[in-house]
Design brief:
Elements lengths: L12 E4 L16 E8 L3 H14 L4 E6 L4 E9 L2 E6 L7 E2 L7 E2 L8
Parallel strand pairs: 2-3
Antiparallel strand pairs: 1-2, 3-4, 4-5, 6-7
Amino acid sequence: MRLSELSEPQPDLALLRRREDSYRRSHPEPSDVLLVIEIADTSLRFDRETKVSLYAVHGIPEVWVVDLRGRRLVRHRAPQQGSYLQVDEPNLETPLEISALSGVAVALQQLFSS
């Protein structure tokens, strides 16, 4: 995804708006992104401190950081002035709604199953 001329991070997963060219002509830009998911094992500090801040600066509406070692998910929403106003740790036993898709929820209970 292209955030600026100097920044093209590669999230682990991104949910994008539908586009007629299926992003063949150009990379997605911030206005195309509905949700970014970062899966963090050894990259947790970089994902949390660098990437999440970068996404906030560019107005990505929702970011989930999945902390594999800590067995938790941290959700960031409502970007404003380079940070997220809403940060929470949803209960993994309850399906988690995607803010941009009313009525669409992701079952998280198997996320950390072994």
